[in-house]
Amino acid sequence: MSRQAGKASQHRAGEGTEDHGYPCPLVQTVALTRDYPGIRALDNVDFSLRAGEVHVLFGENGAGKSTLISMLAGATMPTSGQILFRGKAVEFDNVHAARNLGISAVFQEFSLIPQMSVAENMFLGAEERRRGFLHSGAQTMKARAVLDDLDFRLDPTERIDRLSRAEQQMVEIAKAFRSDLSVLILDEPTASLTVHETDHLFALLRRLRKQDVGIVYITHRIAEIREIGDRVTILRDGRFVDTVDAKSTSEDELVRLMTGRVVGEVFPKVSSEPGDTVLEVRNLHTDDGSLNGVSATVRKGEIVGLAGLIGSGKSRFGKACFGAVGLRRGTVTFKGERIPKPTPRTMLDRGLLYLPPDRRDDGLMMMRPAFENMSLAAVGMRPFSNGWIVDGRRERKIAGALAERLKLAPPRLDRTTEQFSGGNQQKLMLARSLTSRFDLLIFDEPTVGVDVGTRSAIYEFIAELCEIGAAVLLISSDLPEILNLSSRVYVFFGGSIQVELAGDQINEENVLASFFEREAA
Fold first, then answer.
1. Do domains 1-99+214-262 and 265-351+438-521 have the same CATH topology?
2. Residue 423: pLDDT band by 50, 70, 90 thresholds?
C-alpha cells in the first residue's frame, strides 16, 4: 500500500510524533493485513514500537499476535499494508533482511537443530568464515563471548539435544545477539523458565532498554506485563482493540479488552476430599541419575503440586511414574499393585495418563488430524475399537463431543493439528483425559503458552477432575498455579524432594525457600 504513515495511522496511547511529543517510532505498521485461504489472520492493524520500550502484545490464542510478529521478523509477507522502520517503508523477503536492520525474533516454537552445537545454532546462516572456509574456532569464541555477556552459563560446544528446554530457550535468545540489535521480539520467552530464570531475563531486558533497543513482548501472564511492560496493545480476532499503559491498566480491564467480556477469578476454588492412595513411590532412582531416592504419594480427589527449578527433577518424576524414564531402583505402586517395570502402555492400561510439557515435540502428532490426537491415549480401547479395528465414525463422534465441551476453535477436527493455535493444541491434549476413566492424571506444565481465558478453562477442568475423585499430579514452573490449585506440594531440588508442604504451609515464601540447596545444620 502507498499510504503515508502519518496520514494512515491513528494516534493511539501516545503514538504520535508531534501531538504527544514522542519521536518517530522505531517500528510502525500501517493497516497491516495477512490473509490465508479462507481466513484473515490479521486485519488492518496499526502498531508502533518506540526505542527503549517494552511493548506487550496481548490477546487470546488466535488473536493475530504471532502473525504480526512473523511479519515484523520477515518470516511472513503481509498481504497488504506497510511496515516502517525508523520512518521509512521496508519490505522483508526473509528473516535475514529483517536481521540486517537489527530486528531479531525468538519464537515460541524453537528453530534449533538438535544434532548441532550451541555455537553452530547461534550462527546458522551467518557462519564465521576465513578465506571461504568455515572457521569453527572463531565461531565458538564469538558464541562464548555472546553467552558470557548475557550471563548464560552454556557451553558453546554442547549439542542442543543434550540441553534442557530452558537452556534451549537461552540459545534461542542468544541467537538474536549475534549481531547489532535494534528490535528484539520475544514470544512467550518465560514459558519454559522458572522464577529465578525469569528474573535473569528481565534484568537483561532492562539493560537492553537503556541501550534504546525496542522490545516486542508476547505474554499471557499479567504479572509480567506489570513488571516489564511499558505499553500493551490488545488484539482480538486479528483486529486492533486498544493500546494502553501497562502499569496503570487494571487486570480486569486487560482481560475485558482481550476477551470482550468480564472474566472472574482465574483460579477456581478446588473442593479437595482426599481418599485412598492411588500412587505410592518409594526411594525412586532413575537410570540417568535425574532422581535420587524420591518418595511421594498421591490420593484420590486431591491435586498434588510439584515445584522446583528447571532440571530439579520434578518433570522427570512424572515421566518415571509413567514409565517414560528407566528406573535403577525403587518401587512404584499404583492402585495397590506394585509395578516392577512401568511402561507407558502398562500405565495407560491401568489408568494413568501423563501429558507432556512440549506439546509440539512430545505430545502431539502435528501432521495428523485433530480427532486422532484427541483419541490417541485410548484408541486401542472401547468404545474406539474392539482391540483390532478402530471405529472411525465413533472416534469422530466422540472427538466432536469433546471439542464442544472444551470449546475447541475452530471445531474442524479433520484439520491437521499444526493448523490450530497453541491454546487449541493444548486442548487437544487435554481431551485425552476424557477419552477413558483415568485414575491418575499427570499434567506437566499444562498452561505453557496459552492465554488467560484458556488458562482459566484448564484450571476449571483440572479442578473438576479432582472433584469427581480423580488423583491429579500438577507439575508446574508457574508458581501461582502451584499455590492456588494444590492441596499438597512437593518441592524438588537436585533430583530429590526438599520439603512437603500442606494447607497453610503452601505459600510463596516456603516454596521459594526450598528451590535451592539447604545449608547443613
1. yes
2. confident
CATH topology of domain 265-351+438-521: Rossmann fold (3.40.50)
pTM assigned to the model: 0.60
Residue 91: C-alpha distances to residues 96, 106, 240, 296, 497 (Å): 12, 20, 22, 57, 53
What confidence score (pLDDT) does residue 421 get?
77
CA-to-CA distance for 240 and 31, rounded, in angstroms? 10
In DSSP notation, 432-462 reads: GGGSS--SEEEEESTTTT--HHHHHHHHHHH
Cα of 321 vs its chain's centroid, Å? 23
Spatial neighbors of 162 by CB under 8 A, at least 6 apart, are none
Half-sphere exposure of residue 196: CA atoms within 13 angstroms, side-chain side: 14
CA atoms of 65 and 517, how far apart (whole Å): 39
Cα–Cα distance, 310 to 318 (Å, whole number)? 14
pLDDT tens readout for residues 245-279: 999 998 888 888 887 755 556 788 888 889 999 99
Phi, psi of 222 (to 5 degrees): -65, -30
Rounded distance, CA 505 to CA 271, Å? 18
| Model confidence pLDDT, tens digit, residues 274-328 | 999 999 999 999 998 999 999 999 999 999 999 987 778 999 999 999 999 999 9
pLDDT in tens, 78-103: 999 999 999 999 999 898 899 889 99
Judge if the upstream peptide bond of residue 410 is cis by omega within 30 degrees of 0: yes
Encoded amino acid at 166, one letter: A
Q: How confident is the model at residue 519 (pLDDT cuts 50, 70, 90)?
A: very low
Q: By the 8 A CB rule, do 305 and 514 touch?
A: no
Torsion over CA: 218, 224, 225, 230 (sign): negative
- Grid coordinates in use for 192? 519454559
260 or 425, which is more confident: 425
Instruction: Tell the CATH superfamily of the 1-99+214-262 domain.
Output: P-loop containing nucleotide triphosphate hydrolases (3.40.50.300)
DSSP secondary structure, 123-162, as one string: TTTS--EETTEE-HHHHHHHHHHHHHHHT----TTSBGGG
